[in-house]
Amino acid sequence: MSTYKSDLLRVLSERGYIHQMTNAEGLDALAQTQVIPGYIGFDATAPSLHIGSLVQIMMLRRLQQAGHKPVVVMGGGTTRIGDPTGRDESRKMLTDEAIEENIAGIRTVFEKLLKFGDGPTDAVMVNNNDWLGKLGYIELLQEVGTHFTVNRMLTFDSVKLRLDREQPMTFLEFNYMILQGYDFRYLAKEMGVRLQMGGSDQWGNIVNGMELGRRMDGTELFGLTTPLLTTADGAKMGKTAAGAVWLNEAQLPSYDFWQYWRNVDDRDVGRFLRLFTDLPLDEIERLESLEGAEINDAKVVLANEITKLVRGEEAAKAAEATAKETFAGGGAGEDLPTLSVGEEGMRIGAVLTAIGFTQSNGEAKRKLAESAVKLDEQVVTDPGFLVLPDGPDPIKISLGKKKHGLLYR
């Protein structure tokens, strides 16, 4: 049971968002006495975020639900530099226009999950280029640079790992942590922000910003990180064999988004329901206790709830209807042919013939070249593509509109 007194930390704890926190007692006490503006930063390197960022967005939603103020910081300035955390190589430079377009695309998801406005707990979105872009280099070095030691900066994982692997790190990237630290100090001073949240890999950057605020302004700031989110089989969230699972419709159709959640590992159902839906905890406990084929009902609930939040109710209904039609309508469902591809997997060309969709490997190659073959609704054209389901759930294979089958390990 959670021992926190504030709604904010109680909810974050019960739903599994908390990994590390600075001065939990102080933050708990503050959350009971005032509205806390809290922020998370997002770089604008693509026109959409992917589901690896969804836990952070949901944390801002929880902040607002608990009566506090979410501040979404878009890294219009820091995107020009690139966060070296977890990267082996420098990020390519984007134009100002590309960054602005990316921010506009990313905002659409936040508008579905947060309430924006001018009220005390309404969310706001700001762009750190508005203040970082105005900093003169000499002034920055004089005012902020003196509070950072190179000795300490070299101990951060983002720097150390790159150096250990003998991968180059530019001086530009080395400055990223200084600018992120300055963001926290600026937001605290100008907007009353007291809390920065982020993934566990951001702990060093968050602590840097807290220390900078204390040294320069004497303000006590707070930091909170989420656990590194991986699936039950150890894979990083947000990536699949077919590519990133994007939050925006323009980058990934809603049916594919829905299917990702419908096909999660049985062991992840309860955790994902807590993190990514607003369902009550007692209902989540009921759903995660389902066993056998019934756990699939819980996965449909998970897929529907998340798709509803991120893509809208209509998208969720349409995706579920499409899935039912594909798997249960017109002689599908129980009657679908199945094939085990084994622990090592099987090449798609061989799969088509083995399951009886084509008469020969030559015919299989032709069908692939015609873009007539889909795996989980994704077109596959390479006959050498290795089919290997991640876990116990099957992959759906389709040839044209009428031939469907299920592939198991």
TrEMBL record:
An MF annotation (GO) of this entry:
tyrosine-tRNA ligase activity
| UniProt-listed Gene3D superfamilies | HUPs, RNA-binding S4 domain, Tyrosyl-Transfer RNA Synthetase
Record's signal peptide: none
Q: Which Pfam families match?
A: tRNA-synt_1b
What NCBIfam families does its record include? tyrS (TIGR00234)
Q: Which family does it belong to?
A: Belongs to the class-I aminoacyl-tRNA synthetase family. TyrS type 1 subfamily.
Q: How does it assemble?
A: Homodimer.
Function per UniProt = Catalyzes the attachment of tyrosine to tRNA(Tyr) in a two-step reaction: tyrosine is first activated by ATP to form Tyr-AMP and then transferred to the acceptor end of tRNA(Tyr).
Q: What protein name applies here? A: Tyrosine--tRNA ligase
Q: To which species is this protein native?
A: Altererythrobacter epoxidivorans
